[in-house]
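pinned: reference chain
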Amino acid sequence: MFRTLLAVALLFSASSLFAADRPNIVVIMADDLGYADVGFQGCRDISTPNIDRIAAEGARFSQGYVTGCMCGPSRAGFITGRIQSTFGYYRNAAQPLNPQQGLPAGMKTVAHFMQDEGYVTGVVGKWHMGTADHQHPDAMGYSDWFGFLGGGLMYYPLDHPSYRGRYLKKTTPWGVRDMHHTLPMLHNGKQVEWKQYLTRELTDGAIRFIRNNRARPFFLFVSYNAPHEYLEAPAETIAKYPADSMSQIPGVPAKSRSIYAAMVDEMDQGIGRLMETLDTLELANDTVVCFLSDHGGLKRTSDNRPLRGAKGNAYEGGIRVPFVVRWPKRVEPGIVLDHPVTSLDLGATAVALAGGDVEQAGLHGKNITSYLTCQSTDPPHDVLFWHTGNNPKDISGVLREGDYKMLVQRGRVELFNIATDPRESADLSAAQPQRAESMLARWMVWNESNRPPLWVGSKSRQDKNNYQYADYEWLKGTPHYKARDN
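pinned: its structure tokens
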């Protein structure tokens, strides 16, 4: 009897320790957020106390990167845990109802690996990985999903008075942005009604997921649409940011900056509600919370200073983002970690913390737990690669090797020392030709492993018009639904 009780006690103790070492993981991703548009990065004209709290109570990575300078490729990298060019994902899906555009069937994702380790997985918000059945979040490892399949969504329901019925019917083919931004809100593949500002709706969805799954270890991807255009926000929030009080940023109209600020503010309020939920449910100490943007901010709305560049290019302002991780009792509050890390490391670390094998899973990120918790000061990466062109034959990308960054754009090489010149103002390729040539050669060898594009862009109007409609059940009642001809 004693032995039996002892065995049960040891088993219970072991399982408790196992559970304690398997924290919940919440990854919050903003869309088009500027590098300097949060308080912990020095922002003065936008209030972000809740995002700043994550930084103050956790670790800030001064050189946090994503894998692409555009939404789709960057998110494909994070979701799969692999550099997206290695499986042919080079561009945004311009035709959201084209089943050929988006993630390929059978692709295993970080969420799949988390499920393998017993985690319940959820995604809330923007998906942008395709709309065919094999591309839905439930086919890509997420057991619960709430959001929209396109690359964005209007910030109010389509029958909102401000739209004056513009999006309720289609008489002519729509452009790419309107196609993406008018797909329906879905919960696990079925249409749901929504009535409030989009960012608030998505926050409610994330809170529901946490409440419903608090008894199990969970992996939650909160994929906000904010502050991606279109520029829309509640009037009372915009009023907090008068145009004449906004920072003067080259190329950014004050009125646009005012609305953009309100959008960031609304996202920050939502993040505050998420953090409050974790506190209320006594989950905060057992939850790793990560915050980052999917790439640099848009030139006409955001502040990426002091970095050069913006969304759409491979200078630091396009691929280096606000990047913080909070893990109570494990990560020193307020610490700044200066070695480069990437969004791929978040997936790899999550899988490792869940008990999975990162190398066996074939993930391209590193388990940065020891670096994050200051058990190691070694750089997680010796080298980092990016491909930013449209196919392997397009010689465009980046190699980061120590402090040096080689940037090649259609064969033209630039070289920068990021440690001494984070603004990328002094091209060293002429002064250090051997280093530039060596780094380019190394990048070219790596590029041989990149795959042909999963799809190619089309300039044909007729081809684009072919994907204005589909007969998916979840599209019924929307301007995009058309029954298939028998």
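why pinned: The mean pLDDT is 93. The CA atoms of residues 211 and 281 lie 8 Å apart.
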